[in-house]
Each structure stands twice: as structure tokens, then as C-alpha cells.
Design a protein that fits this description.
The chain has 883 residues and is of the alpha+beta class. It is built from 26 helices and 23 strands. The strands form three sheets. It has a six-stranded mixed beta barrel. It has a six-stranded mixed beta barrel with strand order 15-16-21-18-20-19. A hairpin with a 2-residue loop joins strand 3 and strand 4.
Length: 883
């Protein structure tokens, strides 16, 4: 008669192999005799008692519970797999409670990694992945003009070209001008400036949005400036009219003109930028002439017809551009199409993907670190695995148990990571530069939660796979052959490999962060060509009703500048239409008189600025030759122009351009002007931008209804905005400022994207280095603990504490050195990915590579020092007694 299988296997595992056959034979004979005399049940209980005497009390209690009930819950009888999984989960939870140190460290590590990944993916999803909230967003395109020489894109389109494209194209269902605007709203409560958009009547059908109340714009309302109707945003309708349905048909006083409310947009609608009011955009008849083809200042959107691909649309528009190439100022210009979504995010795609890649590196380090923890824990559980195998558990059963523990740990870490991500999103958005589009749509949604679940499960599989495979292969007698600690060469090599990988990954991240930091420092040190300290800026817009004529506009600017110059602490005052680094830009064509080859082709284009005479002095812009404008030139009695060095160097090489004449296109058409001065190049498009050709004309000669006032202040800035508004109100009480801010804030805005990338990549790199340091410490500490007996023997044989210290310190530094070497190779291979994000720093900057290597080795030295120091304090006598 055969004894019960489980206690028989258990006794077979614990009995000495040399005596196993004799002992089991004696026990089986007694079992048969007892079965014959007192029955099988009594014999089974006796045999179980013999087996349970040979195991530790804790294991004995678990075996007795297993003997009493094969399934953990009677509800799951008949569902073996589900019941087994529930049993595995309960067992895993009990195991985590018995090892709180391991559980807390692993969960915190996973929480940091998954939380960071989820938070960054939330931003990437909102900006790069989630489609625009419009009908068929892939059919929406941004239409630009492009200089064929060098494939240089212009962000704007000239009015005559837009009119021709709209009338002659066969590609688009709709085309529309989109222009940001601001209005002075006058009411019984006073005056305030509100944000708005001016669009062609085709705009709302173009994006597929219908008004919630009233009607959209009619086609004829885009033919004349006299069509004064307005559509309200839902928020403005609620705020201004309290949601009153009778608001339709009422009149708002905007820029001293009455605008009739004809519609209200649906709740939550927003197009690119927030706007309260929408008005029809009209192109005056004088701006549709051929002379204005060099005046590029319109932003144009279009919707591709159904069934037409972007490539087909581009080919048809190329053919249209060739037909229009013979028109003035169109030679050498083409048409470029880009989807609206791609146009919005292209400048930020590489930076966001770089940050997401950095988080991916951190996640790999997290997996390696938790794998080390799981491997150490599984090594200590070799006896348990061997006993479970002896009790009849198959390798598949052991693998499933440990995989369940790892996935449970990863999912718990993922839940905590989502909580961390939710707390992190708001600070992350505040840290992000405002130029990144669609940040208002950053939120946790189904896609983000799905990503978090996927990352959690993948992480659990990655960090558990190898340790679980090793543990599930434990032989029944393995715990007898491994003395206490269960240390094996294969496991030591695996842990060392994981540490090398952690160090290498952290090296790549640190080098990337170091390169970006050096680039940021270099960028901050760039001379933009003007002063930004102690410079205050104030923007304003003049209503057309009161400032329709150029004479009234010129008189207003002259008086305002004179009044502001009298303020205490103000050294000088100037004005310009396009402030450096404000994002405002106008480009117009020009030609050099006396050069027949440039007379008709219209290929020459320059950045256009209308400025006051004192603008250059206020902004501390140097003249390389010539002078600023005189009173006669500022008054328009004689026509003058100032050019920058780039234009002078390209168009007048080897000669002095002062005294030459050029014809510049402007809002009044082509005008012949004399070059009176050349200024040093100004970086209008940001510190990292290359200088462009620029022309400056007197603001009094060519006034615009918008301008930015700049003040050179030699005193506190507090109260200056109120003082500017007071002087402005003294001239025109119904005219508020659009904005007022120090010039250094504009500089900070241009540096914000690089600062954002640098801070995030740097933060993740520091986290990665800390995890690698903790990993090195854990490995060396584990080796010290496992080799305590060996240390005692070495000390007994005469090895000094210094030699023991160097032995273990050398092991840690060897791992770090190998990881650093691999990290350097990886950084060199991946450096091309960050090349476009660097300024005045090569991707192979030796200073960065050397300094980061030194930091990594220093951290590794500190991490190895502590356990190596502990190894020198091992008591040889106690160690030998343990042996």
C-alpha cells in the first residue's frame, strides 16, 4: 500500500541521499503494518506526522492547512485555475506583508517610474497624438508661401495671392484667412480690451463647427469692412449677457463701432487660441492689387476636398503657383501645404519625444532595479521553492506563483503611479512653456489609463521574467546543497549585468542633460543685439473709427512718446510695430533701384519694421554706419529707410549702402526710399535664430494702428504700467493698453522650451543615477552578506581590512566602470537625436562627457564605499563559528 504522495516526496527531499532508500523502506513497512492493524486513515495521519517533524514549524503549519483543505475557498470548487490564481494572489499578499522593506522599496520605485511615464505621456497624448476637435481634422491644412530658393517657408500669404488661390484652386472645399485681433469694448461699465479673431466667412464651415444660436457669417459679409457683425463665444455670452437668448440682434460697441450680434458658438469651442469675439475678415480693394503681392501678412487655412490626398493637393497647388509665377513679386515663390495639426506641433514634437524617451530610459532602469530586488528575494526563497517542488508543485505552478506576485506588485505600483501622475500634471503644465499648443487639453483619459495599464503589465513581465524562471527551476534538494544564502554564480552575474545596464542607461541620460544644460547656458549668454534689462514694453491698438487717417495715427504716437519721455526714471522712449522676440512679424518685398535684374522678379524679401527715431537708442541697437531718422523723415516729408547688416552684406558687398535707394512695399504700396543708416543685426526670432534681412521705416511716415512702446527705465518698475495707462488715458480716455511687461520676460519666454526640456531630462537623469547608485549599493551589500564566511576565513589567514575594503570597492567600481564605458558608446550613438536641440555645443562635447563620467564614478564610489566599509568590520571568529 502506497503512502500519501506529498509527505512521501517531502521525506524524500529532506532525508540524506545516502540513507534515503533505507529510511523510506522502513517507513513504508510501518505504514503498511499500521494500515492493516488500525486502518488507512490512522496510517495516513501517522505518516504526515513523520514528515512534518522534518520541516520548520512555519512550513509545517502551512502544510497542515493544505492538508485540511485543498482549495482556499469552497466557492471555487470545480474552477481549478481560477481558484489557484486566487490562492496565488493571497499567498503573494501574505509574502509582501512578511517583507515590508522589499515591498515598500519596490512599490516606491515603480510608482516613480510609472508615475513619470504616465504624466509625460499625458502631455504627449494631448499635444501630439489626440486629433484636433474638428470635423475630419486630417483634411485641415495650413497654406503658406515658400521661397523655392532654399525651401524657406514664409508663415504668411499676400492678399492678392490668397484671392487668386481661393478663386482658381480645384483642391479645397473652403479657404479662409485667420487673424488674431483685439477690440476695445465700450459699455456703461467703462472700457476693456477683449480678445478676438477675425476670419473669412468660410471659416466655420471649413472647420466643421456650427453656431449654437443664431447664424454663421454670410459670404457677402467678407467683402467689405462695413459688415459689422459679431459672433460670441459661449463663455463671453454667459459672462456679458448672462446667457440671455435675446442677446441675438443686440449691439456691442467695439472700437467705437456698433457690431450686431448674429450668433453664439457652442460651449467649449476654442480654435488654437482663446477668443471672446469673432468678426468677418475683409480684404480692402487696394490690397488686392499686384503691387501688394510682396506684402505677406495673412494666415491661411483650407479644407481639402473629400477623396483628395495631401500629396495630390500639393501637386495641384504647385501647378497653380507656376501659373501665377509671372505676376509681380511672385517669381521664385511656391505654395506649401501642411496639415494643421502637424503645423501646430512640429516645433515641439522632437522635444516632447525626447522627454518621453528619457522617461523610457528611466523605466528600463526601474525594471532593472526591481528585477535586482526580486532576484535577491527569490534567492532567499530557494528553500521555499525547493520544498514546494518536493511537495509536488510543478515548474509551471512555481512560475505562475512568482509571476502572479510580480504582476500584482507592478499593478499596485501602476495604480500608485497614476495617482502620482494626477498630482504631477498641474505643476508640469505650469512648468511647460506657453508656446506648446493644446496644453489646456492635458488630462487623464482612457488612452492615458490604457497606457498606464500597459506599462504596468509590461514592467511586471520585464522585471520578473528572468528571476521567476530561475526560481521556478529550483530542484527539491537544492536548499541542502546551498549553504544558507543560496548564492550562485549565475545569479551574481545576472545581478551584475543589471547594474551595468542601469549605469549605462543613466550615463546616456546624464550626458543628454549635460549637453542641454551647456546649450542653455550658451544661449542665455548670446547677445541679441539689443538691451533687455531695464526695458519696459507696452502694446496698444488704435480703433479705426477714431484713428482712420495716417495723420491722426502719427500725431497720436508723437504725443504719446513725448508724454512718456517726461515720466520720472525714463531715459528714452521709442515705438515699433514688431518688437524683437514678441512673435510679431511682417515681411514685404523690396528691390534695389538701378539694378535691372532685381526690378521685376520680386525675389527680395525683408522683415519690415516701422519705428520711431528714438527706438534704436532706447533699445541700445548700434549703428555700424549712417544715422537714425530725422524729424523731416519721421514726418514723412522725405522718405528714408534703415537696413540691417545682413541686408547690407548680401546686397551691397564691398560698398557702403548709405545713400543708395531701394523701393519697399508696404501697406501704402511700393515706395522709393533712401538708405540713411545700417544697424547691427538683431535676433528678432529668438536668441538661437539667424539674422534675416530687415528694413526699418519711420513710424510717423508709415503709421500702423498697432504698435509697441519701449521705455528705457532707470528706476523701479513698480507702478510704471499704471503711469503709462494714465498718460494714455490723458490723450484718449477710451483707449486701454493691450499688455505691459518687462523685456526680460520675452527673453525668458523664448528660453522656456529649452529650459523645460533641460529640467525634465535633467530630473530624470538624476533619478536614474540615484537608482543606479542604490542598485550598486544593493549588489555590493548583498555580496558582502553572502560572503561573510569567506571574509572571516580571509581575515583568519592574515588578510588586512584594507585588502578586504579594496576587494569589494573594486567590485563596485568595476561594475560602474563597465557601465560608464557602455554608456559613453550609447551616448555617442544617440547624440545625433539631440543635435537639433543644441546651440553652440557639439553632440560630442568632451567637457560634458568627461564631467558626467566623473560624476557617475563618484556616485558609484560612494555607493560601493558603504558596504565595503562594513565588510572590514566582520568579526572573523563569529564568521568561522557560523561556518
Amino acid at each position: 500500500m502506497t503512502p500519501p504522495r506529498i509527505p512521501r516526496l517531502l521525506l524524500g527531499a529532506v532525508v540524506d541521499p545516502a540513507e534515503r532508500r533505507y529510511v523510506l523502506s522502513d517507513l513504508e513497512e510501518e505504514y503498511e503494518a499500521l494500515s492493516a492493524a488500525r486502518g488507512r486513515d490512522v496510517a495516513n495521519r501517522w505518516y504526515w506526522s513523520q514528515a512534518l517533524r522534518s520541516v520548520p514549524p512555519s512550513l509545517g503549519r502551512r502544510l497542515r492547512r493544505r492538508r485540511r483543505s485543498r482549495w482556499p475557498d469552497r466557492r471555487w470548487r470545480g474552477h481549478a485555475l481560477l481558484g489557484s490564481l486566487i490562492q496565488d494572489a493571497r499567498y503573494a499578499i501574505r509574502g509582501f506583508r512578511r517583507t515590508p522593506g522589499f515591498t515598500v522599496v519596490a512599490l516606491v520605485t515603480l510608482m516613480i517610474g510609472i508615475g513619470a511615464s504616465t504624466a509625460i505621456f499625458t502631455v504627449v497624448n494631448a499635444v501630439l497624438i489626440r486629433p484636433l476637435p474638428f470635423s475630419d481634422p486630417d483634411q485641415l491644412v495650413r497654406v503658406r508661401e515658400m521661397r523655392l530658393e532654399g525651401n524657406t517657408l514664409s508663415p504668411y500669404v499676400s492678399p492678392p495671392n490668397f484671392v487668386d488661390w481661393r478663386e482658381q484652386n480645384t483642391t479645397f472645399s473652403y479657404m479662409s484667412v485667420v487673424s488674431g485681433a483685439s477690440f476695445v469694448l465700450t459699455s456703461e461699465q467703462g472700457v476693456e480690451r477683449v480678445r478676438g479673431m477675425s476670419v473669412s466667412p468660410e471659416f466655420f464651415p471649413l472647420i466643421g463647427v456650427q453656431v449654437a444660436r443664431g447664424r454663421p457669417f454670410r459670404p457677402e459679409e467678407g467683402d467689405s469692412d462695413e459688415s459689422r457683425v459679431v459672433i460670441l463665444s459661449h463663455g463671453f455670452w454667459q459672462r456679458w449677457f448672462g446667457g440671455d437668448p435675446t442677446a441675438l440682434g443686440k449691439t456691442l460697441t467695439l472700437d467705437d463701432h456698433g457690431y450686431r450680434v448674429v450668433g453664439v458658438l457652442p460651449p467649449g469651442f476654442r480654435f488654437l487660441e482663446p477668443a471672446d469675439l469673432w468678426t468677418p475678415f475683409a480684404i480692402p480693394a487696394e490690397n488686392r492689387t499686384d503691387g501688394m503681392r510682396g506684402a505677406r501678412y495673412l494666415e491661411v487655412l483650407a479644407r481639402i476636398k473629400p477623396g483628395v490626398t495631401l500629396e495630390q493637393a500639393q501637386q495641384q497647388m504647385d501647378a497653380l503657383a507656376r501659373r501665377l509665377e509671372g505676376r509681380p513679386n511672385n517669381a521664385g515663390w511656391g505654395i506649401a501645404l501642411r496639415t494643421l495639426h502637424e503645423d501646430m506641433v512640429q516645433e515641439h514634437r522632437r522635444a516632447l519625444l525626447l522627454v518621453l524617451g528619457a522617461v523610457g530610459f528611466v523605466m528600463l532602469i526601474v525594471c532593472a532595479n526591481v528585477a535586482n530586488l526580486v532576484l535577491a528575494r527569490s534567492t532567499r526563497r530557494l528553500k521555499e521553492s525547493a520544498l514546494r517542488s518536493a511537495l509536488g508543485a510543478s515548474r509551471t505552478r512555481l512560475f505562475r506563483q512568482m509571476l502572479t506576485e510580480s504582476l500584482l506588485l507592478a499593478v499596485t505600483g501602476g495604480v500608485l503611479g497614476v495617482v502620482v501622475a494626477q498630482w504631477t500634471i498641474a505643476p508640469l503644465i505650469r512648468l511647460a512653456p506657453t508656446v506648446i499648443p493644446r496644453l489646456d487639453g492635458v488630462r487623464l483619459d482612457g488612452a492615458v489609463l490604457g497606457f498606464s495599464v500597459g506599462v504596468s503589465l509590461l514592467t511586471g513581465l520585464l522585471f520578473s521574467l528572468v528571476p521567476t524562471l530561475l526560481a521556478s527551476r529550483a530542484e527539491p534538494g537544492l536548499f541542502l546543497r546551498v549553504a544558507g544564502t543560496g548564492v550562485g554564480r549565475r545569479r551574481q552575474r545576472l545581478r551584475a549585468t543589471l547594474i551595468v545596464a542601469e549605469v549605462a542607461l543613466s550615463m546616456v541620460l546624464l550626458i543628454g542633460a549635460g549637453l542641454m544644460t551647456r546649450s542653455f547656458v550658451r544661449l542665455r549668454g548670446v547677445d541679441p543685439g539689443f538691451a533687455f534689462e531695464n526695458i519696459m514694453t507696452a502694446s496698444l491698438g488704435l480703433p479705426a473709427s477714431r484713428y482712420e487717417s495716417a495723420e491722426r495715427q502719427s500725431a497720436f504716437y508723437a504725443r504719446l512718446l513725448e508724454d512718456l519721455a517726461a515720466l520720472d526714471g525714463v531715459e528714452s522712449v521709442g515705438a515699433t510695430t514688431n518688437l524683437p522676440m514678441s512673435g510679431s512679424r511682417m515681411t514685404f518685398g523690396y528691390r534695389i533701384e538701378g539694378r535691372p535684374e532685381d526690378a521685376a522678379d520680386g525675389r527680395l524679401v525683408a522683415e519690415y519694421h516701422a519705428t520711431s527715431a528714438d527706438y534704436f537708442r532706447t533699445m541700445h541697437i548700434e549703428f555700424t554706419s549712417g544715422r537714425t531718422f530725422t524729424a523731416a523723415e519721421s514726418g514723412g516729408r522725405t522718405k528714408a529707410v534703415v537696413i540691417n547688416q545682413t541686408l547690407a552684406r548680401r546686397r551691397f558687398p564691398g560698398s557702403t549702402p548709405v545713400g543708395e535707394r531701394i523701393t519697399v512695399v508696404s501697406q501704402g504700396g511700393p515706395t522709393s526710399r533712401e538708405i540713411v543708416g545700417v544697424i547691427a543685426d538683431v535676433k528678432h526670432a529668438g536668441p538661437a535664430s539667424s539674422p534675416r534681412e530687415e528694413v526699418y521705416v519711420p513710424l510717423g511716415d508709415d503709421p500702423w494702428r498697432f504698435a509697441t512702446i519701449v521705455l528705457d527705465v532707470r528706476g523701479p518698475e513698480g507702478g510704471l504700467r499704471e503711469a503709462i495707462q494714465a498718460r494714455l488715458s490723458a490723450i484718449d480716455p477710451a483707449l486701454p493698453l493691450s499688455s505691459a511687461q518687462p523685456m526680460r520676460q520675452l527673453i525668458a519666454g523664448w528660453l522656456a522650451p529649452l529650459r523645460f526640456q533641460m529640467l525634465l531630462v535633467g530630473l530624470f537623469a538624476v533619478v536614474a543615477l540615484a537608482l543606479a547608485g542604490v542598485g550598486i549599493y544593493g549588489v555590493i551589500a548583498y555580496i558582502v552578506g553572502a560572503r561573510t564566511n569567506e571574509i572571516g576565513v580571509r581575515m583568519a589567514l592574515g588578510a588586512g581590512s584594507g585588502k578586504i575594503f579594496r576587494l569589494f570597492l573594486g567590485q563596485g567600481m568595476a561594475l560602474a566602470g563597465l557601465g560608464a564605458a557602455l554608456g559613453l558608446v550609447g551616448a555617442l550613438a544617440l547624440s545625433r537625436l539631440v543635435r537639433s536641440l543644441l546651440f553652440d555645443v557639439t553632440p560630442y562635447d568632451p567637457m560634458t562627457f568627461l564631467s558626467i563620467t566623473g560624476v557617475v564614478l563618484l556616485v558609484a564610489g560612494v555607493a560601493s564605499y558603504l558596504p565595503a566599509r562594513r565588510a572590514t568590520r566582520v568579526d572573523a571568529v563569529s564568521a568561522l563559528k557560523t561556518e
